[in-house]
Design brief:
This protein is mainly alpha-helical. About 85% of the residues lie in helices and about 0% in strands. The longest helix has 26 residues. It is flat, with a radius of gyration of 18 Å. The two termini are about 35 Å apart.
């Protein structure tokens, strides 16, 4: 158990550092960034994720999410495709770690708007994240469906339609 707790504490500390860089990238205010990072690091809302070993998926999701968002902001500032691909990869890892990260689509859209893009450009920038989210929900639905249902073509169409409906429902609930 010691090593699980050590990894959890290290991941949480790394996430606090990523919070600092995220706030700094959005505000360019070091004092605000330090305050937010310290509050994230010591706030009691994170206690369960850090102290319970089986909650490491939350810490990993947070790491992938914050990293993906930071790379996306860096892409918005530099237009370097490597940052965009890194953001996509980390966002995919975040959503495949915990499905709560389906909200990443909206955060990417919001950051794109915040960085001065039009609504049309922001939608275009968020589209790959929509596809990642849809891919996740389709994979999840297929993995939870008996093989006898997946084998039939009619079932595949129903699975696809149900996946789209599930994605739309999840987005509406968010």
């Amino acid at each position: 158990p010691f090593y699980f707790h050590l990894v959890s504490v290290l991941l949480h500390a790394l996430n606090a550092v990523l919070v600092f860089y995220l706030i700094f990238a959005l505000s360019i205010d070091k004092i605000l960034s330090y305050i937010c990072a310290i509050l994230f690091g010591v706030h009691a809302v994170n206690t369960e994720a850090v102290t319970w070993a089986y909650q490491q998926s939350i810490l990993l999701m947070t790491f992938f999410f914050l990293g993906g968002l930071l790379f996306f902001i860096k892409y918005m500032d530099t237009r370097n495709k490597a940052f965009h691909y890194s953001a996509l990869a980390l966002s995919a890892l975040a959503i495949f770690t915990k499905d709560q990260m389906a909200i990443m689509v909206f955060l990417i859209f919001g950051v794109a708007l915040l960085k001065g893009n039009s609504i049309k450009q922001s939608i275009k920038l968020a589209t790959p994240y929509v596809w990642i989210t849809a891919l996740y929900f389709m994979a999840r639905l297929i993995s939870h469906t008996p093989l006898s249902q997946i084998a039939a073509w009619d079932s595949r169409i129903n699975i696809f339609i149900t996946s789209i409906k599930s994605l739309a429902y999840y987005i509406i609930l968010s």
